[in-house]
Write a structure and sequence with these properties.
The complex is a heterodimer of chains A (118) and B (364).
Chain A (H helix, E strand, L loop, with lengths): L5 H24 L6 H4 L18 H25 L1 H29 L6
Helix pairs in contact in A: 3-4
Chain B lengths: L6 H13 L2 H38 L15 H10 L11 H17 L18 H23 L2 H32 L4 H6 L14 H14 L11 H4 L9 H26 L24 H21 L5 H28 L6 H4 L1
Helix pairs in contact in B: 2-10, 2-11, 3-10, 4-5, 4-10, 5-6, 6-8, 6-12, 8-10, 8-12, 10-11
Classes of the chains: A mainly alpha (118), B mainly alpha (364).
């Protein structure tokens, strides 16, 4: 059973090797002269001012939290969907209640404006 | 096969092969297959770039690349050589280690996901029962490459591009996950081969018909996940130059590029498998094609045709639609796709329970 997963590991290894090989070739062949102007971050031609790791919109944080909730929900739905023919009507009802609770939360977020971007 | 190789090579080789323990045989044959598949993906990506430029060229009344080699077919190789000999600039203020590791983090999942893709009825590199979970896990890792690239570069454009891209990818990932729940309910398995087999029996059994809304949501989310036009605000060149890979040059850029195109091919393959029967022939059961017509047989050919079609759709979308505004993208993801998929899962669950429609066979 676990033997089936060996090719996955090999593939991950080969993919990493290809990535490393490509980058290595790049550093090998791609020679150039460095100077401080070339190595400074690109910013419309003038000297970059202030650090670029600046404050950013809190909405990105909100999206990340919402993502965790919904992604967990999907993680619960996967085993349910596969075994739907075993658990039958009871399973359907249980998931119906679970989804209903989440949909109420989703409607609340929507009304609160957590999904607004403008 | 044996006729091509002379006996004095073949016989010692066979003796050597039989002498190996079964585990070594497995490792050796799988590694060969994996290297072969990887080379094929990279060649596909190379010609996909050529295909894109030709398709968009003709859609805009141009010819596209036509100088390097016959019909311009040498163009991808010329591009590769050019990118190889360009300098890789690592900016002064960047996090050097993360800057170099970020392209690797996007290329590895884009390639390694192919381990569970069933290529034809008998060939799949790793026939694992958690195939779909593996696909989801690896495609989610891809976002780390983008975020790390944007953070490590320490440039404002790259930072903004990475933030946008991350928020967009997570929003569409939810729609994608919900669409896959619908596929799972219809297919009854997490194994991609079993999902394909559940669609055997001709076009009317393909999941695209009962799951049409989920198919649309899945494919459009796929376009958004790969940051392709019209959802390419993460690298919108007219706003934030090139987004997260603004400071990447030479091969480091090429690796991001390779990952993006490999992801496009991957999304096309996954859409074909989940909704269009994967390797299944559209002419299955058509008797008037002749008694032994190969066109009716399931084979890799049909999977390739479907993948090529979806890649064409990617380019078609890019040539047709202007770029979405960022708030429009987020609204489409959260307020249109997620409600559609939730409603369709509820509909599907009730229909499967009542044994109505195409789900009646699966629920039995």
């Amino acid at each position: 059973m676990l033997q089936n997963y060996i090719p996955v590991l090999i593939f991950l290894g080969i993919a990493t090797a290809i990535g490393l090989l490509l980058m290595g070739l790049g550093f090998l062949f791609g020679r150039g002269q460095k100077d401080s102007e070339k190595l400074s971050p690109y910013e419309c031609g003038f000297e970059p001012f202030e650090d670029s790791r600046m404050k950013f919109d809190v909405r990105y944080y909100l999206v990340a939290i919402l993502f965790i909730i919904f992604d967990l929900e999907i993680a619960f739905l996967f085993p349910w969907a596969v075994s739907l023919d075993v658990i039958g009507g009871f399973g359907l009802a249980a998931m119906g209640i679970f989804l209903a609770v989440l949909v109420v939360g989703f409607i609340y977020e929507w009304k609160k404006g957590a999904l607004e971007w403008d | 096969m044996t006729a091509l190789i002379p006996d004095f090579v073949m016989l010692p080789w066979m003796a050597f092969w039989e002498g190996l323990p079964p585990l070594m045989q497995l490792l050796f044959s799988k590694t060969t297959l994996i290297v072969f598949v990887t080379v094929c993906i990279i060649l596909t990506v190379a010609f996909t770039t050529y295909f894109e430029r030709k398709v968009i060229g003709y859609m805009q009344g141009r010819i596209g690349p036509n100088r390097v080699g016959p019909l311009g077919l040498g163009q991808p190789f010329a591009d590769v050589i050019k990118l190889l000999i360009k300098e890789i600039v690592v900016p002064q203020k960047s996090n050097r280690f993360l800057f170099i590791i970020a392209p690797l983090l996007s290329i590895v999942p884009a390639l390694a996901t192919w381990a569970v893709i069933p290529l034809n009825p008998t060939t799949v590199i790793a026939d694992i029962n958690a195939g779909l979970l593996y696909v989801l896990a690896l495609t989610s890792v891809g976002v780390y490459g983008v975020i790390l690239a944007g953070w490590a570069t320490n440039s404002k454009y790259a930072f903004l591009g990475a933030m946008r891209s991350a928020a967009q990818i997570v929003a569409y990932e939810i729609a994608m996950g919900f669409a896959l729940v619908g596929v799972l309910m219809a297919g009854g398995s997490l194994n991609l081969g079993d999902i394909t087999r559940a669609q055997a029996g001709g076009v009317s059994h393909w999941f695209i018909l009962p799951l049409l809304p989920l198919f649309l949501v899945y494919f459009i989310s796929g376009v958004a996940e790969t940051n392709r036009a019209p959802f390419d605000v993460a690298e919108g060149e007219s706003e934030i130059v090139a987004g997260f890979h603004v400071e990447y040059s030479g091969v480091a850029f090429a690796v991001f590029f390779l990952a993006e195109y490999a992801n496009m091919v991957l999304i096309s393959a996954l859409t074909s498998i989940f909704f269009l029967g994967g390797w299944a022939s559209p002419f299955e059961g058509w008797t008037f094609l002749g008694a032994e017509s190969l066109l009716r047989e399931p084979s890799f050919f049909w999977l390739a045709v479907k993948i090529a079609f979806f890649i064409f759709v990617f380019f078609w979308l890019r040539a047709t639609f202007p770029r979405y505004r960022y708030d429009q993208i987020m609204r489409l993801g959260w307020k249109v796709f997620i409600p559609i998929t939730i409603v369709w899962i509820a509909v599907e669950g009730v229909m499967a329970w009542l044994r109505i429609g195409p789900w009646s066979g699966m629920a039995g």
